[in-house]
Amino acid sequence: GEAITVGELAKQMGVKAAEVVKKLLLLGLPVTVNQAIDFDTAALVAAEFEYEVEKTGFEEEDILRTEEDRPEDLKPRPPVVTVMGHVDHGKTSLLDAIRHTNFTAEEAGGITQHIGAYHVKLDNGDVVFLDTPGHEAFTAMRARGARVTDIVVLVVAADDGVMQQTVEAINHARAANVPIIVAINKIDKPEANPDRVKRELAEHGLIPEEWGGDTIMVEVSAKKKIGIDDLLEMILLQAELMELKANPNKPARGRVIEAKLEKGRGPVATVLIQEGTLRVGDAYVCGVHYGRVRSLFNDRGQRISEAGPSMPVEVIGLSGVPMAGDDFAVVADEKQARMVAEHRLRKQREKELSRTTKITLEKLYEQI
Ligand code: GDP
Ligand code: MG
User: Fold this and answer.
1) pLDDT tens digit sequence for 187-216
2) Which residues does the annotation say bind GTP (predicted)?
3) What's residue 207's pLDDT?
4) What angle do CA 172, 173, 179 make, to 5 degrees?
5) pLDDT at res. 235
6) Residues 6+ apart with CB under 8 A from 178
7) What pLDDT is attached to residue 64?
8) Angle (nearest 5°) at CA 164 between 161 and 165
9) Cα-to-centroid distance, 127 and ligand 2 (Å)
10) Could you tell me how far CA 164 lies from the centroid of its own chain?
């Protein structure tokens, strides 16, 4: 809820901060001037000075809350996939191979755009890949409470087998409750031994379907472009089982995949839309920043006017550079967007302040 620092409260009541600190101490609450106290405490101490505290603050949820979706409003959406695996097992090569399946040779030459995610269109469905392979991105997102991945593709080199980061990736995916599809890579190599990889994976609880388990495993070569279509097919199959859905007909919500400051463009964020549809002109709040969508670009750098669920888009028109994992939410107007963003910033500052206070108090006690 809302909070106010002791100093701020004293100022508003026109009394000395030390008086308020003393009152709080008598109430059994040792605090310092810079410390934030919650609404109830503020009301209590204010009453001692014969003041009433009015609740003018708000809960974010009052503004950001959206109504429960009706089942008929939910429409299928593409799966969002993260590629993980041990270093040098071929994550980057696989992402490249997949990306190129969707381009003509001519177009492929022009792929310079990097927005941190891309959208692959297939005959029987679309797939979105997060272009930030590795555990760091995945773990950082999860630490921030962001659940952006529907499926993990675990790359294991057929000539190397299960390694330390392979096991880590399995654990990450399990902890996040995200299904794993295994891509046994480098099968073009003479020393490739897919059966050994399957045995090793089985020891970690990933049993291939052919052995009666339920883990989809596809043999691929990112280098020779073997099995890529099969892998994409399996991803779509897995997605179908998951019945991934979202309501496209409401204000957009999403997560920042990456963000940077670009010369001539200002703050640029790649946002993965998770529900609703984002449109040019929409007012939004993004972490502690806010603004109005000035322009939108897709993963190919083309200007677009709107983006629906599971789509990665570049958003221009932010008040600052947000952090990866930040929540992105469209609100009614820019005034509300600013209110939420400023509220968050205030809360962030209060948190920082109370952290410093705590350290100071601890030091104080040491001296006693
Ligand atoms: P990452 O560290 O997991 O991103 O691995 P990279 O994609 O950078 O690949 C590591 C090395 O393995 C590079 O030299 C690739 O050319 C090579 N490599 C990747 N996939 C294959 C493959 O399917 N076959 C062969 N022979 N080499 C591959
Ligand atoms: Mg790599």
Assistant:
1) 999 999 999 999 999 999 999 999 999 999
2) 85-92, 131-135, 185-188
3) 97
4) 175
5) 97
6) 149, 150, 151, 152
7) 79
8) 95
9) 20
10) 25
Residue with tokens 């599971």: 310
Distance 86 CA to ligand 2 centre (A): 9
Residues of the chain with pLDDT under 70: 1-2, 54-58, 102-114, 133-135, 355-368
Tokens of 100: 């190129």
Question: Ligand 2 centre and the CA of 357: distance in Å?
Answer: 43
Closest ligand relative to 93 C-alpha: 1
Instruction: Find the residues whose C-beta lies inside 6 A of ligand 1.
Output: 85, 87-93, 185-186, 188-189, 221-223
DSSP for 2-42? -EEEHHHHHHHHTS-HHHHHHHHHHTT----TT-EEEHHHH
pTM, 2 dp: 0.80
Q: Are strands 217-219 and 180-185 parallel, antiparallel or unpaired?
A: parallel
Task: Please identify, by atom number, the ligand 1 atom nearest to the C-alpha of residue 222.
Answer: 23
In the reported structure, the alpha carbon of residue 253 is separated from the centroid of ligand 1 by a whole-number distance in angstroms of: 36
pLDDT of amino acid 363? 61
Query: Rounded distance, CA 284 to CA 340, Å?
Result: 10
Residues 98-144 have pLDDT tens digits of 988 766 555 555 555 667 888 999 988 999 998 775 667 777 777 77
- Residue in 82, 89, 93 to alter for ligand 1 test, most ligand atoms within 8 A of Cβ: 93
CB 276, CB 247: distance < 8 Å: yes
